[in-house]
C-alpha cells in the first residue's frame, strides 16, 4: 500500500517521464532543415533596426494594465447576471456600487489622460536671465 507521499512521488515521476517522452518524440519526428532565417532575432521576416535597448513609451504599458484591470473586473458581471433575479435587491445594489466604483476608476483614468494615444506636446519652460532680463 502506498502512502499519500508515495502517490505524489509517482505522480511527479510520471510527469517527468511524460515531459521527457514528449521532447524525445518531437525531436525524432520534426524535420531538421536549418537555415539562416531561424537564427534571426525575429522570425517574422522583419529585420531589426537600431539597438535592442530602446525605451518604449510607458503609455503602452499603462493602457495594457488599465485594460487588464477592467477586463478582469467585468468578468465578475457574468455570474452575477445569470443569478441576480434569484438574489434579490441587495445583490442588485451591491453590483450597482461595484459598477459605480469601476466608473469612478474609469473616469479617473480618462481624466488623467492615460487612455490617450497621442503624445502631448511638452511644455518647454521659458527661462529668463536675471542679469540681462533676456531669454537664456
**Beginning-to-end CA distance, first to last residue:** 87 Å
Q: Give the total of beta strands.
A: 0
The average pLDDT score comes to 81
| Helix fraction by DSSP (H/I, runs of at least 4) | 55-70%
Overall SS class: mainly alpha
Unreliable spans: none
Task: List the helices and strands in order.
Answer: HHHH
- Biggest sheet, open or closed, and with what strands and sense? none
Q: Rough shape?
A: flat
- Count of alpha/pi helices: 4
Give the percentage of residues in beta strands: under 5%
Q: What is the CA-atom radius of gyration, in angstroms?
A: 29 Å
Please outline the helices and strands.
Layout: H1 4-29, H2 58-75, H3 77-87, H4 89-112
Helix pairs in contact: 3-4
Describe, in short, the structure shown.
The protein is mostly helical. The chain is built from four helices and no strands.
Amino acid at each position: 500500500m502506498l502512502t499519500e507521499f508515495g502517490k505524489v512521488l509517482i505522480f511527479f515521476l510520471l510527469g517527468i517521464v511524460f515531459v521527457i517522452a514528449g521532447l524525445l518524440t518531437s525531436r525524432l519526428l520534426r524535420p531538421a532543415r536549418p537555415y539562416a532565417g531561424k537564427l534571426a532575432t525575429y522570425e517574422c521576416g522583419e529585420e531589426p533596426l537600431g539597438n535592442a535597448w530602446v525605451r518604449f513609451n510607458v503609455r503602452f504599458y499603462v493602457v495594457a494594465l488599465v485594460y487588464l484591470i477592467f477586463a478582469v473586473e467585468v468578468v465578475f458581471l457574468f455570474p452575477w447576471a445569470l443569478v441576480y433575479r434569484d438574489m434579490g435587491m441587495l445583490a442588485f445594489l451591491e453590483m450597482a456600487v461595484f459598477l459605480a466604483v469601476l466608473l469612478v476608476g474609469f473616469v479617473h483614468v480618462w481624466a488623467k489622460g492615460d487612455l490617450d494615444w497621442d503624445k502631448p506636446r511638452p511644455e518647454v519652460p521659458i527661462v529668463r536671465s536675471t542679469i540681462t532680463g533676456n531669454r537664456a
